[in-house]
Amino acid sequence: QVQLVQSGAEVESPGASMKVSCKAVGYTITGHYIHWVRQAPGQGLEWMGWINPNSGGTDYAQKFQGRVTMTRDTSISTAYMELSRLRSDDTAVYYCARGRYCSDGVCYHNYFDPWGQGTLVTVSS
Amino acid sequence: QSALTQPASVSGSPGLSITISCTGASSDVGGYNYVSWYQQHPGKVPKLIIYDVNNRPSGVSTRFSGSKSGNTASLTISGLQAEDEADYYCSSFTSSTLYVFGTGTKVTVL
């Protein structure tokens, strides 16, 4: 069964950094991009960026550029999302989700499925 | 990249149909057939219900259908049921290989 398993809830101080992990289970992590999406309390979904676990290539939403870093460790089938200089409005549930795969220059699965269970990150002094 | 525009709320009586719109631009919804829809119940993980504009994943009810015209995509729920009460989000691939979500729509079953 294909699933993504995320790390547990965190409480961070303003100005600190957070790092959330996302382990791919039931498929080869290098086969699909991994996306990161967040949802602040009572708010909508916000796309943060993606990582291609095969190449390590990334692309980030402009809002997060300079503060977010997405990495992976293929030896343990895990992707990571690190967000620095945390503010109170970074309090949210952070999700990873499986995305596209590309073959012979054509990309498929341009959607988010499945999703991880979510990681609540609370930024508070 | 601005969020795609959805109505904040839509309501309908059981058994009837409702449609949720998702308006973007030629650089996202209008430019690619990569619109997807997600259902999210309170406190739960979003669930994919439509991909590539009008395709349903295995196991998703046939009461859900998608379409697109120009820069606007739509999700129709037919035969509305109490279990359909949830938040719904559209998403689109955009130019520059980025993605964007809609603002979200709360569906209420009267």
Describe the protein in words:
- The complex is a heterodimer of chains A (125) and B (110).
- Chain A has 125 residues and is mainly β.
- Helices cover 0% and strands 49% of the residues of chain A.
- Chain A has no helices and twelve strands.
- Chain B has 110 residues and is mostly beta strands.
Short description:
Chain A has 125 residues and is mainly beta. In chain A, 0% of the residues lie in helices and 49% in strands.
Largest sheet descriptor of chain B:
6 strands, mixed
Strand content of chain B: 35-45%
Q: Which chains make the largest contact?
A: A-B, 20 and 27 residues
Number of helices of chain B: 0
What is the topology?
The complex is a heterodimer of chains A (125) and B (110).
Chain A: E1 3-6, E2 10-12, E3 18-25, E4 34-39, E5 45-51, E6 58-60, E7 68-73, E8 78-83, E9 92-98, E10 101-103, E11 106-108, E12 119-123
Parallel strand pairs in A: 2-12
Antiparallel strand pairs in A: 1-3, 3-8, 4-5, 4-9, 5-6, 7-8, 9-12, 10-11
Chain B: E1 9-12, E2 18-23, E3 35-40, E4 47-50, E5 64-69, E6 72-77, E7 86-93, E8 99-101, E9 105-109
Parallel strand pairs in B: 1-9
Antiparallel strand pairs in B: 2-6, 3-4, 3-7, 5-6, 7-8, 7-9
Features:
heterodimer, A: mainly beta, four-stranded antiparallel beta sheet, 12 strands, globular, B: mainly beta, six-stranded mixed beta sheet, three-stranded antiparallel beta sheet, 0% helix, 44% strand
